[in-house]
Design brief:
Its main location: membrane. It is globular, with a radius of gyration of 20 Å. Helix content is 75%, strand content 2%. The protein has a single domain, classed as ABC transporter involved in vitamin B12 uptake, BtuC, CATH 1.10.3470. The two termini are 16 Å apart. The N terminus is likely disordered. Strands 1-4 form a two-stranded antiparallel ribbon. The chain is mainly α. The longest helix has 31 residues.
Length: 340
C-alpha cells in the first residue's frame, strides 16, 4: 500500500522519515489548534457583544444544539473517511422523531417499545443504503439522496405534517431534560464521542475505515472486506440518526416530520471544518468535535445578535464553501506530496 493513510495508523504520530504522514499529522494538529483558537475568539467577541451569550441557560442550550449535530456527525465522519457521503441525516432524524412518538402512542408499543422500534428501523434503513452502495456500486450521494426523499416523505405522510405528542412520563422527561445539571442529549453525545474516537483510533475496524478511504483497491488486496465496512458504516449513521431523533422528540415533547430541516448540511459542515477530507482517508473525531462546537457557537451568536434568519443561511453557506475550499486545497497538496 502506498498512500499515507495506510502507512500510519490513524491518530498516531508518524516517524520523521515518513514525511507525507508526518506532514498530514502536523496539518491535522494545526487545523485542530486553529479551530480551538477560533472558538475561543468567538467566545470573547460574542461574550462582549451578544447579550446573554455567556449565561448558564444559553450555554446549556448550546450543548443541546451541539448534541443534535454531534451525535450524527460521529458516524458521518467515519463515512466520509471511508470515501463516501450520507446526506439523509435531516429527514432521518425527523422520521425517527415521528416513529418514536407514533410507536409510543398510536401504535400501542409504549415508550420503550417505540424507542426500540425506532432504533431497529434506523439501523435497517442505514444498512439498506450501505448495501446499495456496496453491492450495486450505487454512488452514496444517490443512495442517501433517495433515502432523504423517502424518509422525509414518510415522516410528513404519517403525521399529515402535524406534530405527534409524546407521552408525558419520566423516561421522556429525562431524555429531554438534564442529568446532573447537564442536558441528557449532551451526555449521550460525549459518551458516543468517546466510543467512536476509541474505535477509530485503536481498533482493526477503525484502521480498515481509513484504509478503505485511502485506497479501496489496496485495502481489498490486504484482505479487508470493504463492502462489509461500508454497510456497517451506513447502518451506524442510521442508528445515530434514530438516537438523535428520539432525543429531539423528547426535547420538543413531540415527533415532527418537518423537524431537523437542513441538519445534514450542519453535520457535513462540522465534519469538513474539522479537517476530514471529502476525498476520504483522513480525518479525526476530535476535529469533528471542534467543528461541531464552531458551528454551534456561530449559529447561536447570529441569533443573539439579531441577524435575519434568512441571512443566517447565507453565513452558513459561506462557511461551508470556505471549509470545502480549504479541504480541497489540502487534498490536492497531499496528492502532490505522494506523487513526488
Amino acid at each position: 500500500m502506498t498512500t499515507s493513510s495506510q502507512q500510519t495508523q490513524p491518530g498516531t504520530a508518524a516517524s520523521p522519515s515518513a514525511s507525507p504522514s508526518a506532514g498530514t499529522a502536523r496539518r491535522r494538529r494545526l487545523n485542530e489548534i486553529g479551530l480551538l483558537a477560533a472558538i475561543v475568539l468567538l467566545y470573547v467577541v460574542l461574550g462582549s457583544t451578544a447579550s446573554g451569550f455567556l449565561s448558564l441557560d444559553n450555554q446549556l442550550g448550546m450543548l443541546r444544539d451541539a448534541a443534535t449535530i454531534g451525535i450524527a456527525a460521529w458516524g458521518v465522519t467515519l463515512v466520509i473517511i471511508a470515501g463516501e457521503i450520507d446526506i439523509s441525516i435531516g429527514p432521518a432524524v425527523a422520521f425517527s422523531s415521528v416513529l418514536v412518538a407514533k410507536g409510543a402512542t398510536a401504535w400501542g408499543l409504549g415508550s420503550w417499545g417505540g424507542i426500540a422500534l425506532t432504533l431497529a428501523l434506523g439501523l435497517a434503513w442505514g444498512a439498506l443504503a450501505g448495501w446499495l452502495v456496496a453491492r450495486f456500486t450505487v454512488p452514496s450521494f444517490i443512495a442517501t439522496l433517495g433515502l432523504w426523499s423517502v424518509l422525509g416523505g414518510l415522516g410528513l405522510y404519517l403525521t399529515d405534517a402535524l406534530p405527534v405528542a409524546l407521552p408525558d412520563n419520566g423516561l421522556f422527561r429525562t431524555l429531554g431534560g438534564t442529568v446532573l445539571g447537564l442536558p441528557t442529549s449532551a451526555l449521550v453525545m460525549l459518551v458516543l464521542f468517546a466510543v467512536f474516537a476509541y474505535v477509530a483510533r485503536y481498533t482493526a475496524y477503525g484502521r480498515s475505515i481509513y484504509a478503505t478511504g485511502g485506497n479501496a483497491a489496496a485495502a481489498r488486496l490486504a484482505g479487508i472486506n470493504t463492502g462489509r465496512v461500508k454497510i456497517a458504516l451506513f447502518a451506524t449513521t442510521g442508528l445515530l440518526s434514530a438516537i438523535t431523533g428520539i432525543l429531539l422528540a423528547a426535547r420538543l415533547g413531540s415527533g415532527n416530520g418537518g423537524a431537523a430541516a437542513g441538519l445534514e448540511f450542519d453535520v457535513i459542515a462540522a465534519v469538513v471544518i474539522g479537517g476530514t477530507l471529502l476525498a476520504g482517508g483522513r480525518g479525526s473525531l476530535l476535529g469533528t468535535l471542534l467543528g461541531v462546537a464552531f458551528i454551534t457557537v456561530i449559529a447561536n451568536g447570529l441569533v443573539l445578535l439579531g441577524v435575519d434568519s434568512f441571512f443566517q443561511n447565507v453565513v452558513r453557506g459561506v462557511i461551508i464553501v470556505g471549509a470545502v475550499l480549504v479541504n480541497v486545497a489540502i487534498s490536492n497538496r497531499d496528492r502532490a506530496v505522494r506523487t513526488v
